[in-house]
Amino acid sequence: MPLQFELCPGRMIGGNHPCFIIAEIGQNHQGDMEIAKEMIKMAKDCGADCAKFQKSELEYKFNKRALERPYTSKNSWGKTYGEHKRHLEFSNEQYRELQKYAAEVGIFFTASGMDEKAVEFLHKIEVPFFKVGSGDTNNFPYLEKTAKKGRPMVVSSGMQSMETMRRVYKTVKQHNENFAILQCTSAYPLEAEDVNLRVITEYQKEFPDIPIGYSGHESGISISVAAVALGAKVIERHITLDKKAKGSDHEASLVHSELAELVRSIRLVERALGSGIKQMLPCEKACHDKLGKSVVAKVKIPKGTVLTLDMLAVKVAEPMGFPAEDIFQLVGKTVTEEVEEDESLLSEVVDSYGKKAKS
User: Fold this and answer.
1) For position 358, what pLDDT does the model report?
2) Which of 215, 250, 290, 350 could be a cystine partner for 182, CB 3.0 to 4.6 Å?
3) CB-based burial of residue 273 (10 Å sphere; 0-12 exposed, 13-18 middle, 19+ buried)?
4) Average pLDDT over residues 300-319
5) What pLDDT is attached to residue 3?
6) What are 35-80's pLDDT values in tens digits?
């Protein structure tokens, strides 16, 4: 199984590819198509890679009693939970319209299929990848059917144990090599103490052949940026036009300015991560030339003298001679010319010294 794969047409994730940033609109559109389109445009303008929704076929996701129960929350859009959810659910034709709009804007479009029927619809309209929400992560018949469809998958892991996630990995892997797992804690808003970013590194150890990411519900962007520094290859954050809008997700969502700053900060951190190879870089040459230290004569050293450590010192010197790290290698070598006190030791005055000085 590859550590990197094509999540969307022409867009690879994992390896050294840029972090894939999902702007989760979810149901923060309030059931309004114009708000939904405005949020898609917001995601694009802020630099996110994908605008994502949540698609449900309510009779397949909930049983009758769940839909009929009274729903009196301040966030309710109806007298029963079913009425509330129906208000927030777009039709299949509306999803096609949103998908078309996202293509016109120039951003990838997908949705979490919140039940098997919804997954069938999303497969039919050819979303680039399936997102598995935390509520279905331990739904193994659903996982298997979704994986068999062959589209890439991004699987959240809220409310799950490591033992369950091992089963999830094995289940999906049997049918689909192209998937990522996201660390997630299902609380809205999420307190820093419950984020558990270290799970990212544990997932990297447990599942070294797939990309690992982070789905966050915390306030602000700092924790999500830290996830990228830990190696997250996918970041998912909820977005909103108004944190005070009606609905339980808005408070933990990012407004335009926050999403734009998140994208900017992630791209900055990616540049800063570097190659992992420690070496003197070209940008350091000016500092090295000005302040880099060399080996100098602590005392006057006559021609023919065999060098001892007490004859040598390390200073910022002009001209630059042997670098400071070579001082012990010079001990026992013979100088072929007289070296004045406080002068640099240069390669041409040290007999049979194979290593040339840095210049």
Assistant:
1) 45
2) 215
3) exposed
4) 98
5) 87
6) 999 999 999 999 999 999 999 998 989 999 999 999 988 889 999 9
Q: How many residues does the chain have?
A: 359
Torsion of CA 212, 217, 220, 221, to 10 degrees: 10
Angle subtended at Cα 355 by Cα 350 and Cα 357, rounded to the nearest 5 degrees = 75
- Residue 224: both structure tokens together: 């999500």
Closest CA to 231 of 206, 211, 216: 211
Tell me the pLDDT band of 357, cut-offs 50, 70 and 90: very low
Helix (H) or strand (E) holding 8: strand 5-8
Angle between helices 162-173 and 198-206 (to 10 degrees): 40
Question: String of b and e for 234-245 (b: at least 16 CB within 10 Å)?
Answer: bbbbbbbbeeeb
Residues 105, 216: Cα–Cα separation, whole Å = 25
Contact 223, 254 (CB under 8 A): no
Cα–Cα distance measured from residue 257 to residue 106, given in angstroms and rounded to the nearest whole number: 20
Peptide bond preceding 9 in cis form (omega within 30 of 0): no
Provide the 10 A C-beta neighbour count for residue 34: 9
Instruction: Answer yes or no: is pLDDT of 2 > 70.
Output: no
